[in-house]
Amino acid sequence: MGKAQSLVAGIDVxxxxxxxxxxxxxxxxxxxxxxxxxxxxxxxxxxxETAASIQAVLKQExxxxxxxxxxxxxxxxxxxxxISEAVNVGWKDYYLKQELEALLHVPxxxxxxxxxxxxxxxxxxxxxxxxxxxxxxxGTGVGGGIIAGGExxxxxxxxxxEIGHIQSVRENGARxxxxxxxxxxxxxxATGIARLGLEKVQTERRGYLQDRLSEQGTISAKDVLxxxxxxxxxxxxxxxxxxxxxxxxxxxxxNSLNPEVIVIGGGVSKGGAFLTDAITRHFKxxxxxxxxxxxxxxxxxxxxDAGVIGAAWLASKTFPEGARQLYER
Amino acid sequence: MGKAQSLVAGIDVxxxxxxxxxxxxxxxxxxxxxxxxxxxxxxxxxxxETAASIQAVLKQExxxxxxxxxxxxxxxxxxxxxISEAVNVGWKDYYLKQELEALLHVPxxxxxxxxxxxxxxxxxxxxxxxxxxxxxxxGTGVGGGIIAGGExxxxxxxxxxEIGHIQSVRENGARxxxxxxxxxxxxxxATGIARLGLEKVQTERRGYLQDRLSEQGTISAKDVLxxxxxxxxxxxxxxxxxxxxxxxxxxxxxNSLNPEVIVIGGGVSKGGAFLTDAITRHFKxxxxxxxxxxxxxxxxxxxxDAGVIGAAWLASKTFPEGARQLYER
Lengths: 329, 329
What we know:
Two copies of one chain form a homodimer. The first copy, chain A, folds into two domains: about 5-115 and about 310-329, ATPase, nucleotide binding domain (Nucleotidyltransferase, domain 5, 2-Layer Sandwich), CATH 3.30.420.40; about 125-300, ATPase, nucleotide binding domain (Nucleotidyltransferase, domain 5). The first copy, chain A, is about 45% helix and about 20% strand. Chain A is built from 13 helices and 13 strands. In chain A, helix 4 (about 115-125) packs across helix 12, helix 6 (about 190-205) packs antiparallel against helix 9 (about 235-255) and helix 8 (about 220-230) packs across helix 9. The interface of A and B includes residues 131, 155, 255 and 289 of A.
């Protein structure tokens, strides 16, 4: 690791840990570590501790950075680097960019963690190089990030990419946290798939899902995918319902956005090719033929590193090495 | 009109006429006119005739331009200014940018006409100033243009904005020109609304729609809107079906894109506030609450000028000669 190398810090703030990486201009992680998220005093010490940790590592390794990118959950005023609200962390109207710039003496850019995960997969993951990419996270909810023309799409007040709230069940859908009924995440998130599985077993009381319920007292999304893969008809029926809704929503987004690639991440994506093959099958039913044919549907590959890599991508792009002098003046 | 003014040419190529305007840096049309589209020899003379017409006007008026923007129908390689295919005009793999730059001696930028209509409404129409805008044209088909972060979204191979092919009728939909069944434009375009009206009257054989059918031998979208406005229950039912599909598709797009404003244009938009009120009602049912509340749904106001104004917007933005002079003044 030569001293002449130009590095940026990628920082991914979560409710439990702050992930930190020093990343070169090629997007390769040179060093990475994490510190606990200090929730005290509405998260007031998190950036101080993060900056101190970065400065200690830089000193020890005789390295320097020329910029930093930060991903945070919640609603963010991206232009000004202000966290409007991040419930998991405790921040409210928090001037993150201003504070971290004062601490690190380098320019800082801030964005939503889901958007930066999309940026990470675009830069170094399974969407490598795509200027037009849709990242989908199938976890507790359904999250998303949209990159179009090489840029993160934010929308008018930062809600772009909230694909989990695409209306999917038109009538009598389950209630969603957003206040609506029948959102995509009520049927295609890990939580949604588990809920559908539980409803199914409560009606049918048989087979693989009943066995899992008797053993565990509950049904997980993994149980549904495992059962479907093993050919259990009830698990298959639930899985098909979940992936049909996903295929429908993603096809309609792609009919309007025409990305090169969709990257599927989150816990449910552990379903692997079994999952993406099923999504692709439904996607092709609902997509404009040429879009159904050409849009790639890939599994995310960066896992927990997507956020820090995406943060570094945005920092590198926003503050290219050559711009440093201009900033410091 | 002072000679020092910095002007661009906005050009909108259609199957019948080429619309041309000289537009200042504020987006005000200083002169506009049109020439017939010369379809001879696969449209080989169109740009020559357009350039000659512009040069004659510039000479006569002692004016000059510093850039030109061109909107054309069909598939376009925007980066290189090549028309891949424009069936209405006859062009195929036509190097429009290269040819027009050689003729006019100013830089030229080319984009799809629907995208530029969105740009026009953004610049000087009912989306004035919005950085995030969705333009919808309800005509023979359903067209669209998406502007996000101030830029036209093109997608991977220029199909972004093709919102007419969002799947709307999930089962047993009507066949669409794109090869799929149940696309938005099979139910919410002028053609789609007329088709639904005709199907209705063939079943019900009564009321306003039957009267129109008896008189005219057919049913138009206008008949459906007029009947619905007058309270005819069959016309109301068809109208509600068409606007519910629109509200659903637009809400789901906005759940992902979060534009500030949706601009509704095309022949069906002559339905005015009666139409936008109905779309808004369904939009709010399917949108994330804060998006349902804050997204404006406006009627387009530029009519046939949207294309030339959008072409001038793109030219001014891409080649900001005029903007600089304005700034320096």
